[in-house]
Amino acid sequence: MEAIQRKIIHISKTPYSQQIISQAVVVDRMMYISGQLGVDVVSGQLVGGGVQAQARQALINMGKILRAAGCDYTNVVKTTVLLADINDFNRVNEVYKTFFLRNFPARAVYQVAALPIGGLVEIKAVAVLGPLLDSHPAKHFTNKLQSNL
What we know:
Elements: E1 6-9, E2 24-27, E3 30-37, H1 50-68, E4 76-83, H2 89-99, E5 106-111, E6 121-128, H3 137-148
Parallel strand pairs: 4-5
Antiparallel strand pairs: 1-2, 2-3, 3-6, 4-6
Protein backbone atom coordinates (compact mmCIF):
# COMPACT_ATOMS: atom_id res chain seq x y z
CA MET A 1 0.00 0.00 0.00
CA GLU A 2 1.38 3.39 -0.96
CA ALA A 3 1.87 5.91 1.83
CA ILE A 4 -0.32 9.01 1.84
CA GLN A 5 1.49 12.26 2.34
CA ARG A 6 0.76 14.33 5.43
CA LYS A 7 1.72 18.00 5.44
CA ILE A 8 1.71 20.28 8.47
CA ILE A 9 0.55 23.83 7.79
CA HIS A 10 2.33 26.33 10.00
CA ILE A 11 2.31 30.08 9.64
CA SER A 12 3.87 32.43 12.13
CA LYS A 13 1.21 35.14 11.95
CA THR A 14 -1.50 33.25 13.77
CA PRO A 15 -2.05 32.73 17.48
CA TYR A 16 -0.48 29.73 19.12
CA SER A 17 2.13 29.30 16.42
CA GLN A 18 4.52 27.97 19.07
CA GLN A 19 2.12 25.56 20.79
CA ILE A 20 2.24 21.78 20.70
CA ILE A 21 -0.58 21.58 18.16
CA SER A 22 -0.56 21.82 14.40
CA GLN A 23 -2.45 24.80 13.05
CA ALA A 24 -3.63 22.56 10.24
CA VAL A 25 -2.82 19.16 8.82
CA VAL A 26 -3.28 18.23 5.17
CA VAL A 27 -3.80 14.60 4.22
CA ASP A 28 -4.35 14.01 0.53
CA ARG A 29 -6.70 16.90 -0.41
CA MET A 30 -8.28 17.27 3.02
CA MET A 31 -7.13 19.99 5.42
CA TYR A 32 -8.04 19.78 9.09
CA ILE A 33 -7.79 23.19 10.78
CA SER A 34 -7.37 23.31 14.54
CA GLY A 35 -9.84 25.33 16.58
CA GLN A 36 -9.33 29.05 16.20
CA LEU A 37 -10.04 31.49 19.00
CA GLY A 38 -10.61 35.22 18.63
CA VAL A 39 -7.02 36.05 19.46
CA ASP A 40 -5.28 39.09 18.00
CA VAL A 41 -2.04 37.94 16.37
CA VAL A 42 -0.10 41.02 17.45
CA SER A 43 -1.03 41.13 21.14
CA GLY A 44 -1.64 37.42 21.64
CA GLN A 45 -4.76 38.32 23.61
CA LEU A 46 -8.46 37.78 22.99
CA VAL A 47 -9.96 40.71 21.12
CA GLY A 48 -12.38 42.90 23.04
CA GLY A 49 -15.94 43.50 21.97
CA GLY A 50 -17.65 40.26 22.93
CA VAL A 51 -18.54 37.10 21.08
CA GLN A 52 -19.05 38.72 17.67
CA ALA A 53 -15.61 40.34 17.70
CA GLN A 54 -14.05 37.06 18.81
CA ALA A 55 -15.90 35.09 16.11
CA ARG A 56 -14.75 37.57 13.46
CA GLN A 57 -11.12 37.32 14.63
CA ALA A 58 -11.29 33.51 14.81
CA LEU A 59 -12.50 33.40 11.20
CA ILE A 60 -9.84 35.91 10.11
CA ASN A 61 -7.21 33.68 11.73
CA MET A 62 -8.70 30.68 9.94
CA GLY A 63 -8.54 32.58 6.66
CA LYS A 64 -4.79 33.06 7.07
CA ILE A 65 -4.34 29.32 7.46
CA LEU A 66 -6.58 28.64 4.46
CA ARG A 67 -4.55 31.06 2.32
CA ALA A 68 -1.29 29.42 3.41
CA ALA A 69 -2.59 26.22 1.81
CA GLY A 70 -3.82 27.99 -1.33
CA CYS A 71 -7.47 27.97 -0.26
CA ASP A 72 -10.17 30.33 0.87
CA TYR A 73 -13.47 30.05 2.74
CA THR A 74 -15.16 28.43 -0.27
CA ASN A 75 -12.95 25.35 0.26
CA VAL A 76 -14.36 24.77 3.75
CA VAL A 77 -16.78 21.83 3.80
CA LYS A 78 -17.32 21.39 7.57
CA THR A 79 -17.04 23.59 10.64
CA THR A 80 -17.52 22.98 14.32
CA VAL A 81 -18.36 25.98 16.46
CA LEU A 82 -17.83 25.78 20.20
CA LEU A 83 -19.62 28.40 22.30
CA ALA A 84 -19.19 29.29 25.94
CA ASP A 85 -22.90 30.28 25.88
CA ILE A 86 -25.35 28.75 23.39
CA ASN A 87 -27.41 31.95 23.68
CA ASP A 88 -24.70 33.56 21.51
CA PHE A 89 -25.70 31.31 18.59
CA ASN A 90 -27.50 34.04 16.60
CA ARG A 91 -24.81 36.64 17.27
CA VAL A 92 -22.13 34.27 15.95
CA ASN A 93 -24.31 33.44 12.92
CA GLU A 94 -24.39 37.13 11.99
CA VAL A 95 -20.59 37.11 11.72
CA TYR A 96 -20.34 33.60 10.25
CA LYS A 97 -22.50 34.46 7.24
CA THR A 98 -20.15 37.32 6.28
CA PHE A 99 -17.33 34.80 5.73
CA PHE A 100 -19.33 31.91 4.25
CA LEU A 101 -21.46 33.55 1.58
CA ARG A 102 -22.94 30.59 -0.31
CA ASN A 103 -22.84 26.80 -0.33
CA PHE A 104 -22.46 26.88 3.42
CA PRO A 105 -20.30 24.20 5.01
CA ALA A 106 -21.89 21.48 7.08
CA ARG A 107 -21.72 22.62 10.68
CA ALA A 108 -22.17 21.54 14.27
CA VAL A 109 -22.52 23.98 17.17
CA TYR A 110 -22.03 23.04 20.80
CA GLN A 111 -22.02 24.82 24.11
CA VAL A 112 -19.00 23.80 26.17
CA ALA A 113 -18.13 24.25 29.83
CA ALA A 114 -15.14 26.47 29.05
CA LEU A 115 -12.79 27.48 26.24
CA PRO A 116 -9.05 28.16 26.47
CA ILE A 117 -7.96 31.55 27.85
CA GLY A 118 -11.56 32.49 28.59
CA GLY A 119 -12.64 32.57 24.94
CA LEU A 120 -16.29 32.92 24.05
CA VAL A 121 -16.12 31.05 20.72
CA GLU A 122 -13.78 28.60 19.00
CA ILE A 123 -14.14 27.48 15.38
CA LYS A 124 -12.46 24.52 13.72
CA ALA A 125 -12.84 23.42 10.13
CA VAL A 126 -12.25 20.83 7.45
CA ALA A 127 -11.44 22.07 3.95
CA VAL A 128 -10.78 20.42 0.61
CA LEU A 129 -7.74 21.67 -1.30
CA GLY A 130 -8.08 22.57 -4.93
CA PRO A 131 -11.07 23.49 -7.03
CA LEU A 132 -14.52 22.29 -6.02
CA LEU A 133 -17.39 21.80 -8.42
CA ASP A 134 -20.66 22.56 -6.67
CA SER A 135 -23.80 20.67 -7.52
CA HIS A 136 -27.13 20.99 -5.84
CA PRO A 137 -28.71 17.57 -5.49
CA ALA A 138 -30.55 18.79 -2.41
CA LYS A 139 -33.28 20.30 -4.61
CA HIS A 140 -33.65 17.00 -6.44
CA PHE A 141 -33.64 15.13 -3.13
CA THR A 142 -36.28 17.46 -1.66
CA ASN A 143 -38.53 17.04 -4.71
CA LYS A 144 -38.10 13.25 -4.60
CA LEU A 145 -38.78 13.18 -0.85
CA GLN A 146 -41.97 15.21 -1.25
CA SER A 147 -43.21 12.94 -4.04
CA ASN A 148 -42.74 9.93 -1.76
CA LEU A 149 -44.88 11.41 1.03
